[in-house]
Amino acid sequence: MEGRLQEHLDRRQREGTLRSLMPLPKPIDTLEQSQQISPTSPDNIDFASNDYLGLARCRDQHASVQSAYEQLFSPDDKLHPPLLGASGSRLLSGDSHLARSLEGKLAQVHNRPGALLFNSGYDANLSILSSLPYREDDAIVMDELVHNSLVMGVRMGRLKKERVFLFRHNDVMDLKRVLEGVASSSSTLASTIVVVESVYSMDGDIAPLKEIMELAQDMGAGVMVDEAHGLGVYGHTNKQNLQLTMHETNFPRDEGGSNSDKSTIEKKTIGGTGVIAALDLESHPALLCSIHTFGKAAGCHGAVVAGSSTLMSYLVNYARPFVYSTALPPHSLISIQQSYESMMGPVGERRRTRVFQLVKLFREDISNGITTLKEDFPNSDFELLPSPSPIQAIVVPGNKRCISVCQYLRKVGKFDVYPIRSPTVAKGQERIRIILHSHNNEDDVHALTTMLLVSLRQLMAYPDDLKLTSKL
């Protein structure tokens, strides 16, 4: 078996698709160093993490979590000491008033009858799609670019692969074509579920959720929406950021983690709860459920499924990752609670504003640079994908070229960026994914775009030399 394992690794090495963990930095020697260094890649400027609002690295956020946790467990209470772990699954010893209360709050926040916590977004997606009670003529219709967790959830389920269909990415007309074909081969009792993401992690583009849900309702289908990259980034207060538009560029100052005026905010002025909320689709009759992941903008860990009370009861009974996993510990639950306080309050609003100002700045720099590059090199094949979100992608076809640019940016520019290679994306669509955060600044963005454009120009000027330098 060892030899067979090595054969597979060797094949990936030859193809340029071998994955490995990045080398870790030297240990931090002083407190001063630890305060200056980003946790994502300790020597580099973060343009890679999913920490969009900077909550995972925010000292005020950390203090807020610690304060709430200490209030939960009194040091003088000998009968109820602080728990480091949940100690069991939710169906055994791992349930708590804290978990139940948090689920109630999250159901209210996402304007749904019920909510159920999971250990991760991956677990949540596996749970739903692997456990649904499929009939033989039921169908799953998925956007061709949905996350691996959604694909694997379907594979683990009872539905035959002949009843799983794909439609072209974000193409509502193609979805209609597929749904009509499904309807013609199904009985009147069959159920169809359309599976999409709100924001796609590799392209950064937004699903046309309103059109998808209206079509699904007309065709009698339900819609499952993964909001992993929508939570915290979009909400009622910034619907305009769902499209590529111009914004003001006066940068607000982040004044810490206080949310004392949260209680005065009306529902329609609460931001950060996702794309579904931004589009006022939370109560749409076609919405089966939404999945909100906490490991990205929320800066912590876990996920919640929001939907009907019936669906929540069903998942408690049949979702194997939920039934057989130890529950989230109390500290994680408190972290989730405090993240929502920040995302929906003034801090989240200021940080979202800053992020989208940086998105505009980045896109202006790269768009102008690629236009100039194509004037000088008409056969240039680089492309800035049309994303309005903090996820920006520059297509650099070829794994080796893509890796070369990222190595140059990391070693010379000290920017924490990574290549997205095939087979993660299709061949010829390899890309450098740049993620913009509230903890980045204008100078960081300008420096990154300048060096990125220099590296692309060098690839065109010296196509046989993949060892990029700063000679241009």
Keywords:
single chain, 472 residues, alpha/beta, seven-stranded mixed β-sheet, four-stranded antiparallel β-sheet, 15 helices, 13 strands, 40% helix, 12% strand, globular
Give the SSE map.
Blueprint: H1 2-15, H2 31-36, E1 45-46, H3 59-72, H4 97-109, E2 114-118, H5 121-131, E3 139-143, H6 148-156, E4 164-167, H7 172-184, E5 192-197, H8 209-219, E6 222-226, H9 275-278, E7 287-293, E8 303-307, H10 309-318, H11 320-323, H12 330-344, H13 346-376, E9 383-384, E10 391-395, H14 399-411, E11 415-416, E12 418-420, E13 431-435, H15 442-461
Parallel strand pairs: 1-11, 3-4, 3-5, 5-6, 6-7
Antiparallel strand pairs: 2-8, 7-8, 9-10, 10-13, 12-13
- Globally, the shape reads globular
Task: Give the integer mean of the pLDDT values.
Answer: 88
Percent of residues in helices comes to 25-40%
Amino- and carboxy-terminal Cα gap: 49 Å
What is the chain-wise order of helices and strands? HHEHHEHEHEHEHEHEEHHHHEEHEEEH
* Radius of gyration (Å): 23 Å
